[in-house]
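Q: How do we represent a protein-ligand complex in a form that can be generated token by token?
A: Start from the inputs.
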Amino acid sequence: MRALVYQGPGKISLETIEDPSPTDDEVLLRVDAAGVCGTDRHIVAGELGVPPGTVPGHEIAGTIIGMGSDVEGWKSGDRVACFGQVTCGTCSPCVSGASNRCRQPAVLGMARQGGFAEQVALPASCLIRLPDDVSSPVGAIASDAIATPLHALMTVGQLRPGETVVVIGAGGLGLHAIQLARLAGAACVVAVDPFEPARKAALIAGADAVLDPSLEDDAVRALRRLARGASLALECVGTAETVELGMSALSPGGRLVVVGVGSARPSLPPLARFIGTELSVCGSFGSTPAEIETVLNLIERRRLDVSHSVQREVPLGEAASIFSEPGGPARTVILPQSQESHR
Ligand SMILES: [Zn+2]
Ligand SMILES: [Zn+2]
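Then emit the structure tokens for the protein with zinc ion bound:
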């Protein structure tokens, strides 16, 4: 089969590799769509220590074309979305329903072969049924670009109706966070992004106000003015500056949820303010299969508008060049079954 193979820092190429063969508890999927996440860009840049020879891609939608002898409840032809990591199912986070925090996870496209390929073999425990009305590109990105902000806002952030929410970074995660916050009853949503197309997209997604922090002498003061009394902030960028901006936007008792991954070391506000105003800072990682199901249900029932969620669809044969271009506000999706355009 054809696959995009990571070859070392800065290098990814289209290769012909052996077809995967499913073990007893695995299914073989024809990959219909695979979302390109910021994490994939970090992998290709060589920042995450992924071994060369790995096929990236953890946002996958596909159709079952084969299965091992122990798989029950699925049949050939079933359309599925996938939970992005293979979990052990027996550690205490897994048993308590927080499998996103599994102690022995194997992330697809990092610790095992991912979805930037014509086929992928995955344990049946990763599968989530894809409703007929949900397209494969949307099903692919739902598992991360939409379920991750759902987990961050609702499960970790404990968003309540009537709150003011600040979303920092209006990319794939942030744009869906804006919609989800409104759906959950936020009274006001303010989005922060220095990139103009992202701010436009944030307004389309339903932000009540947007802020370009690079245009402000004092971004903290400008944000406090816009988001009077923000009680919940969601940080989707992963730099020290944006985490610190998120904390300073909060009113007393506020919570900052950090989703952006990186090696930054942000600092806390002076302890007198941090303690005295009872601020909280929480990390949030991925989502659970149940949350992906929730997201697919919301999409199927048209409670979420996903018409702007996929910016671009690219055949597998043309996809290697994506990684040398900057990412836009919405997701690019690779379509491994689509023919090249022969431009
Ligand atoms: Zn991702
Ligand atoms: Zn586990």
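Residues 136-156 form the longest helix (21 residues). The chain has two domains: 2-145+287-335, 158-283.
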